[in-house]
Design brief:
Largest sheet: 3 strands, mixed
CATH architecture of the largest domain: Orthogonal Bundle
Number of helices: 4
Order of helices and strands: HHHEEHE
Distance between the termini: 23 Å
Number of domains: 2
Strand content: under 5%
Helix content: over 70%
Shape: rod-shaped
Strand order of the largest sheet: 2-1-3
CATH topology of the largest domain: Helix Hairpins
């Protein structure tokens, strides 16, 4: 049994290395994904800003057209004032003219506001465009770095997997199944040391008799709390 425990410890060390490489590869990919999400967010902002400018420009053109039409009507009314025959008609045309001038003043103010908004939006677009350009450059650099790193990790993992096959073949099929099942349930840690009667997997004390049986190293013993495979390790051996 001592030999089996030794094989399992070596196998777990290999599996932990593989897990670490997988996590590093996943973390690198996550960084790329986050960068893409950020870039897409800025691009969406650019689309929204552009749409706002287009809407403001459209409204500005409409107001300017209304201004011209109303100005033409004002001139027409002013011409009519010279030919009116009654005071009532005169006052009516005069009121229409003043209302038209007032409406045009409001339109002019609205046009100015729209132009100010367009200017501000244009400045935002310029800023967002700079950010997008920088993000795209950084994304390209990150992708190149991650691809290089992933290639290195994949090559290293391939070597480790070959070593794992060799170590796994030294363990019986039934024991390997137990080890794999525990590893899957216990976050990659299937076999743990027990030092001074304490399981280093869950850090709980194990019963004294179980500890004595563990020191004999003549059978497979599982932690009663976390159910991991245990092996005895003297305090001087603890890393």
């Amino acid at each position: 049994m001592k030999a089996n425990i030794s094989h399992l410890r070596e196998l777990q060390a290999i599996d932990l290395k593989i897990s670490t490489l997988d996590k590093e590869i996943a973390a690198s990919s996550a960084e790329i994904d986050n960068r893409r999400v950020s870039l897409d967010g800025h691009k969406d902002t650019l689309v929204q800003l552009t749409a706002k400018i287009a809407a403001n420009e459209q409204r500005r053109r409409e107001l300017e057209a209304e201004l011209e039409d109303e100005q033409a009507r004002i001139k027409d009314r002013q011409t009519k004032l010279m030919n009116v025959q009654t005071n009532r008609e005169y006052q009516s045309i005069l009121k229409e003219t003043e209302d038209g001038k007032k409406a045009n003043k409001q339109r002019e103010e609205a046009v100015v506001q729209l132009m100010e908004q367009i200017e501000a939006l244009t400045a935002q677009i310029e800023e967002e465009t700079k950010i997008c350009d920088e993000d795209e450059k950084m994304l390209a650099e990150d992708i190149a770095a991650v691809e290089k790193k992933t290639g290195q990790f994949t090559a290293e993992k391939s070597k480790i997997l070959k070593a794992r096959e060799s170590k796994a073949s030294a363990v019986t099929v039934s024991l390997l199944k137990k080890y794999t099942a525990i590893r899957d349930k216990r976050n990659g840690l299937a076999i743990v040391a027990v030092t001074s009667g304490v399981c280093r997997g869950c850090f709980m004390n194990i019963p004294p008799q179980l500890y004595n049986d563990l020191m004999k190293e003549d059978k497979l013993i599982f932690c009663p709390t976390c159910h991991r495979i245990m092996f005895h390790q003297a305090e001087t051996e603890e890393e």
